[in-house]
Design brief:
By secondary structure, the chain is an all-alpha fold. It has ten helices and two strands, in the order αααααβαβαααα. Helix 3 packs across helix 4 and helix 3 packs across helix 9.
Length: 307
């Protein structure tokens, strides 16, 4: 193949490789990070100690308990005085080992239910049961001698986490994402290797690929920042923004690290490629026909004068 077609083909392959870098990283993160229950639970576990998440749990569980009491008991006259006790009890519960265990169990159950719905052909709404958490809080309220705490009903109420109407579209996207999580990174590496091998000036091709990889990392980092802003802006009313931000940051921590690695690694390789020719040692001088220049003749040794 002549040099010009090789250069064009190499440029096309390297461009495709650089374009696939951010999408490959995103797909791999979703397929092997979010779709793994163990990794998901490990990622979410530290949020049990986050103050914003704890306060969101206090508001959600506390208000749920009060609604349950209102449905079975007439405590409207005492609601204003009971509410602080309920919220304080739930807040105290969020600092216990039992809450951390319930938090991890709830995340595991929810994640398993969502994955099962996405991988199977079941079209029913995905629901979870929060009765175990309510029972734990009820025991804490009873221990703190809160009035009427022992009469709080613990009902197995199904809480919808994934509507049935969205399952079909989400299932198709999930299957595509699982395939893309493997093939997009492989394709990016294959295009880069082939493009560098076909390049007429390989050093320049390596530098261009490194800079493109760094640009892909920067684009990925920018996309994460924009996604965070849009996610927090579209939250429904009543959802805690600090808690949602903490969850978003925890879920995308691995992806942000990958974006920084791509950026730093690409810049480092490009800089090393640019500096390498300038660090070479000077070559020895050569004669007219390309042979090394002859060494200068040694000075004759001094002779002793005769007496």
């Amino acid at each position: 193949m002549s040099p010009r077609p090789r250069s064009v083909l190499s440029a096309v392959l390297l461009t495709l490789s650089c374009l696939l870098v951010p999408f490959g990283a995103l797909a791999a993160w979703a397929a092997y990070g979010l779709a793994d229950t163990g990794r998901y639970v490990t990622t979410m576990a530290p949020l049990a100690a986050d103050p914003a998440v704890r306060e969101a749990v206090v508001d959600t569980v506390g208000d749920g308990l009060l609604r349950a009491v209102d449905q079975h008991l007439d405590v409207r006259r005492f609601r204003g005085s009971v509410r602080p006790f309920v919220h304080d009890a739930v807040r105290s519960f969020t600092h216990t080992q039992a809450f951390r265990l319930a938090w991890d169990t709830g995340n595991r159950v929810t994640h398993d239910a969502v994955l099962r719905a996405l991988r199977d052909a079941d079209e029913r709404t995905v629901t979870i049961d929060l009765a175990p958490v309510t029972a734990q809080v009820k025991r804490q309220l009873t221990h703190d001698h809160v009035p009427l705490a022992a009469r709080i009903p613990v009902e197995h109420t199904a809480v919808a986490v994934l509507p049935a109407g969205r399952l079909t579209a989400l299932r198709k996207g999930f299957h595509v994402l699982e395939a893309a999580g493997f093939w997009l990174p492989v394709a990016a590496v294959a295009f880069a290797v082939t493009g560098i091998a076909l390049a007429v000036r390989r050093r320049r091709a390596v530098a261009a690929t490194a800079l493109g990889t760094a640009a892909g990392g920067a684009v990925l980092f920018l996309a994460l920042a924009v996604g965070r802003s849009l996610t927090l802006a579209d939250l429904p009313a009543g959802v805690s923004h600090p808690a949602a931000a903490a969850v978003y940051d925890a879920l995308t921590a691995t992806l942000r690290t990958a974006a920084w690695l791509l950026l730093c690694l690409g810049l480092a390789v490009a800089l090393l490629t640019w500096l390498t020719p300038r660090l070479r040692l000077p070559r020895p001088a050569r004669g007219r026909r390309g042979s090394p220049a002859p060494a200068p003749a040694a000075a004759p040794a001094p002779t002793r004068a005769r007496a």
